[in-house]
TrEMBL record:
CDD domains: crotonase-like. Pfam families: ECH_1 (PF00378). One of its GO terms (molecular function) is lyase activity. Gene3D superfamilies: 2-enoyl-CoA Hydratase, Chain A, domain 1, Lyase 2-enoyl-coa Hydratase, Chain A, domain 2. It comes from Chryseotalea sanaruensis. This is Enoyl-CoA hydratase. The keyword Metal-binding does not apply. GO terms for biological process: fatty acid beta-oxidation. The lineage of its organism: Bacteria, Pseudomonadati, Bacteroidota, Cytophagia, Cytophagales.
Length: 257
């Protein structure tokens, strides 16, 4: 298993545990996250969920680039659509979901954190959508959710430069709710917050999540445009160059082809 589910009191924790690849999301991890949320949704005793990454270095450093590099356009579109469904399931989850971001939250990792309701980041956390370095764009809803959280101008700047934001800057921009010194403090804060919410009426919390999300609207056109553009880029030479360069640990030389 690459995803560990644990329960303490009325809080369930999902830990993505693939430290050798900085907890990157391969298809197995995605499917295990889906199963974890599905099983927690049936647990009456769980009143809140924490999602985090194993270790201190990474929350999730993105989709698994080695796996992505061999996908066809059709496979990439299918996987992106599956990810969209899963991340929207998390965004609509009827119980509060806190992302405890303990290190790198890049690409799909940043998208996973953004799908959660609340984000707590450790001081060493780094956020970013660096897909442009691979000849790609975000494919798990990042173009939409980053824009919702930080506004169009900053979202475009971050996604076009691929720059990483530190935890404090991410908090300034509204991407992160709270910054804590380390993972232990993050666990304590997440537990405190979720325990407080657990004392409120559960049905009211569920309706609150539904209402806030309805106001944002699941802008289907935006998510669909992302999937189509993401898939299209799998047919380009720049995508081959970008992913090859990552695996060869060098800077990519893009030609716009
Ligand atoms: N995928 C696969 N392996 C990874 C990933 C990743 N995203 N990130 C890190 N790793 C691996 C490295 O290859 C390395 O493995 P090895 O030891 O075998 O060489 C190991 O993890 C440790 O990483 P580094 O040695 O690179 O550690 P550093 O501290 O030097 O650097 C970084 C850390 C800066 C985080 C660096 O690893 C990095 O840049 N990683 C890639 C980040 C990235 O580009 N993420 C975006 C990926 S694309 C994406 O998320 C698209 C989402 C939509 C997908 C839709 C699916 C269809």
């Amino acid at each position: 298993m690459l995803t560990i589910v644990s329960h303490e009191g009325n809080i369930s924790t999902i830990t993505i545990s693939r430290p050798s690849a900085l907890n990157a999301l391969n298809q197995q991890v995605l499917s295990e996250i889906k199963d974890a949320f599905a099983s927690i949704s049936k647990l009456h005793s769980t009143r809140g969920v924490v999602v985090t990454g194993e270790g201190e270095k990474a929350f999730v450093a993105g989709a698994d680039i080695k796996e992505l590099s061999s996908l066809t356009k059709a496979e990439a579109v299918e996987l992106s659509q599956k990810g969209h469904q899963l991340f929207q399931f998390i965004a609509d989850f009827p119980k509060p979901v806190v992302a405890l971001v303990n290190g790198f939250a890049l690409g799909g990792g940043c998208e996973l954190a953004m799908a959660c309701h609340i984000r707590i980041a450790t001081e060493n956390a780094k956020f970013g959508l660096p897909e442009v370095n691979l000849g790609l764009i975000p494919g798990y809803g990042g173009t939409q959710r980053l824009t919702q959280l930080v506004g169009r101008a900053k979202a475009l700047e971050l996604a076009m430069t691929g720059d990483m934001l530190n935890a404090k800057d991410a908090r300034e921009l509204g991407l992160v709710n709270h910054v804590v010194a380390n993972k232990q403090e993050g666990i304590e804060l997440a537990n405190k917050m979720l325990s407080k919410i657990a004392q409120k009426a559960p049905l009211a919390i569920t309706e609150l999540i539904k209402s806030v999300n309805a106001g944002f609207g699941y802008e289907k056109a935006g998510y669909e445009a992302e999937v189509n553009s993401f898939g299209h880029l799998f047919t380009t030479k720049d995508f081959i160059e970008g992913t090859t360069a990552f695996m060869e640990k060098r800077t990519a030389n893009f030609k716009g082809e």
